[in-house]
Design goal:
InterPro entries: Bact_2-comp_sensor_kinase, HATPase_C_sf, Sig_transdc_His_kin_internal
Radius of gyration: 38 Å
Keywords: Membrane, Transmembrane, Transmembrane helix
GO molecular function: phosphorelay sensor kinase activity
Pfam families: His_kinase
Shape: rod-shaped
Number of helices: 10
Protein name: Signal transduction histidine kinase internal region domain-containing protein
Length: about 375
């Protein structure tokens, strides 16, 4: 809170759609309009009397614009003495406040009437005004106006609370989604780490130390990439492809005579957003079933291309799909992560065609923020 609004608590918090300053401006505009409408109605009903219009309208505006101060008081009392749920003390305070405001406002209106004499010679003199009757007659109107203002304040407060609860619920859902995605990502990492370390140990046993060192360096790059992007659900396709290339190089070190690979991506696609580590499980599946299992030479082809407003990622390898199809951790997590991130707006398929297997990802085309 600052300056002019500093002495008046926010009707709604800073995160809400309306601050105290804004509320008071709206309230001032309402009471100004209320006074103008009241004055116009009186002028129309007395149009043949020839009263001075600016004075008549100014009188009614002056009468009702001062309700801005009671409006601010209602806000303070509503926060200090809530009426929901109703309690005797709160009801008594608001009833007393409404009555006091009504009495003071009536006396103010009478004083203004006798001073400005907006009805010219038709304006009553002080001796003609029966103050007691006027006060009693105006109290019910004061109660009604007080309740209207109180109702508006409560409506705004409840609107703000609903908005805050909605934001909190959305934040909670987002946190749960992030936690779920991170858990799925963590399931993939130990699986990949175990397989790679097992391959390194195999290279060491057959005295292929240079290849083992190269694989360790590649593994370090992949782990650093995972740690540097911890907590992020999407990354640029260019980064993902670079890490996928490192992964395929590691696998090529394991199978130097039986594996080759190509990665094709248009440079204009480098900044397109994709889920982190979305390609690595597909490439791992291609190596496992296309090379490791068959024992024959195989080729892994990775392609990224744009089709209209979609991004298509392909991982193709030599081999066939075992029947029945059993999806392990990597492929299961791929489907689950896509469903969590995109709902029904992303598709993943694994199909066989001749002597090739194609893993296909169809994603929305979104640029990295």
């Amino acid at each position: 809170m600052t300056s002019a609004s500093g002495r008046f608590p926010l009707l709604l918090r800073h995160t809400g759609p309306m601050t105290a300053r804004q509320f008071l401006l709206v309230a001032a505009a309402f009471w100004l309009l209320f006074g103008l409408v009241a004055g116009i109605q009186v002028w129309i009903s007395m149009i043949s009397h020839g009263h001075h219009i600016p004075l008549l309208l100014g009188y009614h505006v002056a009468i009702w614009l001062v309700w801005l101060a009671p409006t601010a008081l209602v806000v303070l009392l509503a926060r200090r003495f809530p009426v929901v749920p109703p309690r005797p003390l709160g009801v008594a305070v608001h009833l007393l406040a409404a009555t006091t405001i009504g009495l003071l406002h009536t006396l103010y209106a009478l004083g203004l009437l006798l001073w400005l004499r907006p009805y010219d010679q038709m304006t009553a003199s002080a001796s003609e005004v029966q103050i007691g009757q006027v006060l009693l007659a105006q109290i019910p109107l004061a109660w009604i106006l007080y309740l209207l203002v109180l109702g508006a304040v409560l409506a705004l407060e409840y609107s703000q609370r609903y908005r805050e609860h909605a934001i909190e619920a959305a934040d909670l859902r987002r946190s749960l989604t992030d936690a779920r995605l991170h858990a799925l990502e963590l399931q993939i990492q130990p699986h990949f780490l175990f397989n790679t370390l097992n391959a390194i140990s195999g290279l060491v046993r057959v005295s292929r130390k240079d290849e083992a060192i190269g694989m360790i360096v590649g593994l370090a790059d992949l782990l650093r990439y995972s740690l540097d992007h911890a907590g992020r659900q999407r990354v640029a396709l260019g980064e993902e492809v670079e890490m996928l290339t490192r992964y395929l190089e590691i696998q090529q070190t394991r199978f130097p005579d039986r594996m080759s690979f190509t990665v094709t991506m248009d440079e204009t696609l480098r900044q397109v957003a994709v889920p982190i580590l979305i390609l690595q499980p597909l490439a791992e599946n291609a190596v496992r079933h296309g090379i490791d299992r068959t024992g024959s030479a195989s080729r892994v082809e990775v392609r990224a291309q744009r089709t209209d407003d979609r991004l298509e990622l392909q991982v193709r390898n030599s081999g066939s799909i075992a029947t029945p199809v059993v999806e392990r951790i990597g492929l299961k997590n791929t489907r689950e992560r896509l469903r969590t991130l995109y709902g029904n707006d992303a598709r993943f398929s694994l199909t066989a065609s001749g002597d090739h297997v194609l893993a296909l990802l169809d994603l929305p085309f979104d640029l990295q923020p």
